[in-house]
């Protein structure tokens, strides 16, 4: 119990101490709250003071700004008033100027009106006078008898030009131009022109009228459109442009004829171009067509702006070239003649001395003189001319000559094979183009033909002659011959040439070179005739079976477009053919919108002989690989790649694999 009492006493003391601590804590809290209330009051007072200070400062600043703005507004108002005053002054000045101009214009108008009125009065007076004169003349004419003869000097009869005819064989464009001139001279209207045009049609041109309705035969535009569609050249523009690009001067054709043909083709190929463009193009095509290289080069450097200038310059250049050539030959003849004369005088002195020693007159023959002081010496024989016996069958091969194609010093030319000649000759024109060292010969050396005709030898040179794929070095002479070159018998024997007249070929070193006969039109062409009548559909191509016109001239040839063909809008593909076969396939293209008919026996192509046939230097490998461009194709599987390889292997001869293959072909049609 005592322990409980102690415990209770202890608890009572603890309670008292706790109550006492609580009282102290309460007092402290009250004191802290009081202090906080005092701090808040002080803070509130500071905020009020700061607010009052800020408000007073802001009010002072706002007052200053208001004063500044008011002063600026007053200044602006003063400036605006001054500007208004200036505008008013300018407006008054402008109004005064306008009034002055109105017064001046009004004065001018009044002056012009007065002048116009005066002119009108004058014109009225003149018109009245004219009217009076006319009335007087009319009254006089009324009083004149009806059968009064007219003055023949005052009568005029309109000339009548006779209309032309058109049969479809001539140019429709030319006829239309002539018809327009005639109709204008005769004063025809469109209805009369239509009737006259219908009356002027003949032959195939008149057949066009069958496709025109009867009620349209008086419509000029309908008739002209029908004739233009049938005989016009507007759809052949591309054909004429191709012909113009490939036009070249023919042997013996003058520059004037060439220029006229170029001008004709220009009018057909570029009719829609302006005149200045046509003149420039015509000059370029004319220069490209000139055959002589020197004349072409000189004319090209002249840079002519039109065809007439190019033609005039090229003709002047050719004339100057001919004069220079004549002068040069004359000078060379004089030099050779003077040197030969001095040699001849020296030889006569030697002959006189030899006769005094008892030497026979024929001492000029090669050998030794065995008499006197000339013993053991050879006399000079300046006049020895081993070329005195130069012979040739004819100066021109003509129709019966056999030719082969070759080149001399790199210049291609036709060579006449003449077994009756003992010297190889080149023409003077060709010799001027050669780069070899030209040696002038004495003027007493001449060339003699089988008929006794003589030609002068101008000189000689050592040249490289190429026949087929072989080259030969041989001495040739320059003379005035018609053919570019004549191959003689000594050349053929020296290099072991063999001629086969049955096959029309010449062989050397295992190589066959075709020979062909000359003709009046083209010495190396052979025509191919249609085997049967064929119709070529519009805008399409087909193979036509043909036969050679004359077999035996040569065997292998290349087909070309015939110059004498009458069909327009038809092209022929170039193909290697064998003329020994029964039928020759010719691929023909019809560019026209209408079908073309090729009659049996008509000329469909010409054949030009193949210069040389050389075996392929290397063949395709059996293990043919695809090109790199095909290896990279993603769309090909292995089976398709194998098919491409087999295709290339089968047609390997159709593709070139080296530079030596270009221009050659292993297959013939």
TrEMBL record:
InterPro entries: Aspartic_peptidase_AS (IPR001969), Peptidase_aspartic_dom_sf (IPR021109). Keywords: Coiled coil. Gene3D superfamilies: Acid Proteases, Apolipoprotein. Residues 17-65 are annotated as: Disordered. One of its GO terms (molecular function) is aspartic-type endopeptidase activity. Residues 73-144 form a coiled coil. One of its GO terms (biological process) is proteolysis. Residues 17-51 have a biased composition (Basic and acidic residues). It comes from the Eukaryota. PANTHER family: T-SNARE COILED-COIL HOMOLOGY DOMAIN-CONTAINING PROTEIN. This is Peptidase A2 domain-containing protein. It comes from Araneus ventricosus (Orbweaver spider).
